[in-house]
Amino acid sequence: MADWEIRKLRVLRTLRERGTVTAAAEALNMTPSAVSQQLTNLSRQLGVELLRARGRRVELTDAARLVLRHAEAVFEQLERADAELAAYVHGEAGEVRVGAFSTAVPALVVPAVTALRATHPGVAVRVREAEAQEAYELLAAGDVDLALSLAAQAPTAADPRFTRVPLLADPLDVALPAGHPLARADGLRLADLAAEPWIFGGSGPWSDITHAACETAGFRPYQAHTAAGWTAILAMVGAGMGVALVPRMAVVPREGVAMRELRADRPVRHVVAAVRRGAGEGAAVGTVLTALRTAARARLAESPHRPDH
Q1: How many angstroms separate the CA atoms of 129 and 204, rounded?
Q2: C-alpha to C-alpha distance for 71 and 237, rounded to whole angstroms
Q3: Whole-number Å distance between alpha carbons of 170 and 188
Q4: What angle is formed at CA 176 by the lines to CA 210 and CA 181, rounded to 5 degrees?
Q5: Is 106 within 8 Å of 77 (Cβ atoms)?
Q6: Does the pTM exceed 0.70?
Q7: What kind and span of H or E run contains 213?
Q8: Cα(166)–Cα(195) distance, rounded to whole angstroms?
Q9: Do β-strands 146-150 and 94-100 pair in parallel, antiparallel, or remain unpaired?
């Protein structure tokens, strides 16, 4: 039987994810020569060639991909073992590190932590604000236990490293200047705003979401101003400079801004949580996921915006 060593398998997996020996060494806090030596030893122990040279780079062989396909099941089982051991040792106690994007922190994470203080005081939650790419890098590296992001930014369900958990379909409301003729109109539709100047980010997921929602409603939005932060966007709306789609999670009441719910063609953005595959069965991580689901349901149950708001 081949001599499988978990540490060397992790080195091989990191090389696949990072692409180069140098990048893998940096991620693992090793020297490039140490990474190369580990992989050479693993190749010798397994009796197959794992890497082949391609110019100045190396690429994984078919044998290496086969090894990693089976190794993922080993990594998952080890995560499950760690989770079960933590549950056995700590019961309802433990620390869960959460990486979450900016609007999810006040809307979902803080209410979940507040509720846990009353129901599970032994569960400590450490929060780290991080956008999607960084959050999943932290999750893969073991630096956080749970990552929150938009579904469009999350790894696919086929990614063997993570398990995705749907949390919330966050409605997108329209922010209009308070004195706008449509600010109090009945049955407002997104298409009613086709001729308006729009405010949204120049690139990234929010730009994509705004374009997709407007195009589904039958028009391309004219981008009059570019901003990424909700404070800046709502300030410009309040000044009468344009209109914007705003996720309900991000809304902070602001003078001069009328928030309106879109009823007939209501767009949404989907928020998901992710854990390392097998780790979600740990008592503390599962408890935090449950609290986040409860916070998401409460968020959806809140009264929508009315014309007189």
Answers
A1: 18
A2: 52
A3: 18
A4: 125
A5: no
A6: no
A7: helix 205-216
A8: 35
A9: parallel
